[in-house]
């Protein structure tokens, strides 16, 4: 009897979990903004290092936090009944907003490199980041064509859905890896030449390393939520879906 009750006792309701995840995402955005403002000189559009500072802020905000929010839309219990189109539009709009911020973040780093005469696309971080953005763009276009346009046949949607879900989680983890590697790369480049060495862990290094860990935790928790069976939206023709609709309908 205790063996059957223990999973229920350890079960975490979705909405409190989602609130915690939202607070964690906002903390990540606040910390990356604080890092760039306090230690990296703030923000500007003049092509200097302050222009570069838009890059980490926009990437963390768009490619990780906003993209994670878009991925969790269909885990909200309110989406399990009624018309699905408004939630599709919300999911696609959040993803599109994440993509716009990501493109602006790329523009910031390319503008900085070009103005300083720094080569583009030579590090593993840059390869991984650009590959993630390209995969993200393909994911959004394919999802728009398959799920939002009215002429996509049902069999095509059913065929593409598990692929869309798989690449959604994959893109998020690639985004996390890109952001964490970018933080580490920035610290290696910045904490030298008159500043305290990275290996001595100055305050900036501790702060930025903590930011990287929080971003990683955020991504892992989002993927865990996506993989949790009890939080998945039941298929419209499944027994679970009919039971949910009966309960919601009284």
From TrEMBL:
Where does this polypeptide localize? Late endosome membrane; Lysosome membrane
Name all Cytochrome b561 domain ranges: 20-227
Keyword list, A-Z:
Electron transport, Endosome, Glycoprotein, Heme, Iron, Lysosome, Membrane, Metal-binding, Oxidoreductase, Translocase, Transmembrane, Transmembrane helix, Transport
Show the GO MF annotations.
Answer: metal ion binding; transmembrane ascorbate ferrireductase activity
Record GO cellular component, one term: lysosomal membrane
Q: Which PROSITE patterns match?
A: CYTOCHROME_B561
The catalytic activity of this protein is classed by the Enzyme Commission as: 7.2.1.3
Q: Which cofactor does it need?
A: heme b
One Pfam entry for this protein is Cytochrom_B561
What is catalyzed by this enzyme? Answer: Fe(3+)(out) + L-ascorbate(in) = monodehydro-L-ascorbate radical(in) + Fe(2+)(out) + H(+)
Record's bilayer topology term: Multi-pass membrane protein
Source superkingdom: Eukaryota
Where does the chain cross the membrane? Answer: 14-36, 57-77, 89-112, 124-151, 163-184, 205-227
Query: What job does this protein perform?
Result: Transmembrane reductase that uses ascorbate as an electron donor in the cytoplasm and transfers electrons across membranes to reduce iron cations Fe(3+) into Fe(2+) in the lumen of the late endosome and lysosome. Reduced iron can then be extruded from the late endosome and lysosome to the cytoplasm by divalent metal-specific transporters. It is therefore most probably involved in endosomal and lysosomal cellular iron homeostasis.
* PANTHER family for this protein: CYTOCHROME B561-RELATED (PTHR10106), LYSOSOMAL MEMBRANE ASCORBATE-DEPENDENT FERRIREDUCTASE CYB561A3 (PTHR10106:SF38)
**Subunit details:** Homodimer.
Per its record, how is this protein called by name? Lysosomal membrane ascorbate-dependent ferrireductase CYB561A3
Which organism does this record belong to? Nesospiza acunhae
Please state the gene responsible for encoding this protein.
Cyb561a3
């Amino acid at each position: 009897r205790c063996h059957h009750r223990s999973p229920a006792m350890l079960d975490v309701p979705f909405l409190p979990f989602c609130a915690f995840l939202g607070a964690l995402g906002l903390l990540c955005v606040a910390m990356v903004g604080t890092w760039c403002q306090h230690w990296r000189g703030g923000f500007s559009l003049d092509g200097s290092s302050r222009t570069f500072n838009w890059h980490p802020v926009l990437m963390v905000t768009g490619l990780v936090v906003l993209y994670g929010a878009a991925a969790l839309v269909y885990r909200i219990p309110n989406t399990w009944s009624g018309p699905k189109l408004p939630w599709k539009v919300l999911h696609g709009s959040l993803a599109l907003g994440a993509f716009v911020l990501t493109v602006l973040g790329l523009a910031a780093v390319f503008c900085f490199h070009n103005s300083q005469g720094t080569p583009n696309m030579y590090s593993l971080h840059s390869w991984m980041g650009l590959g993630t953005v390209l995969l993200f763009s393909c994911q959004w276009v394919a999802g728009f064509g398959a799920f939002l346009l009215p002429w996509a046949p049902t069999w095509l949607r059913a065929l593409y859905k598990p692929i869309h879900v798989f690449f959604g989680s994959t893109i998020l983890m690639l985004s996390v890896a890109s952001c964490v590697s970018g933080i580490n790369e920035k610290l290696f480049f910045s904490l030298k030449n008159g500043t305290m060495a990275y290996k001595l862990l100055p305050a900036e290094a501790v702060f930025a390393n903590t930011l990287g860990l929080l971003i990683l935790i955020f991504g892992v928790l989002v993927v865990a939520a996506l993989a949790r069976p009890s939080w998945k939206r039941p298929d419209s023709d499944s027994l679970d879906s009919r039971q949910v609709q009966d309960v919601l309908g009284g």
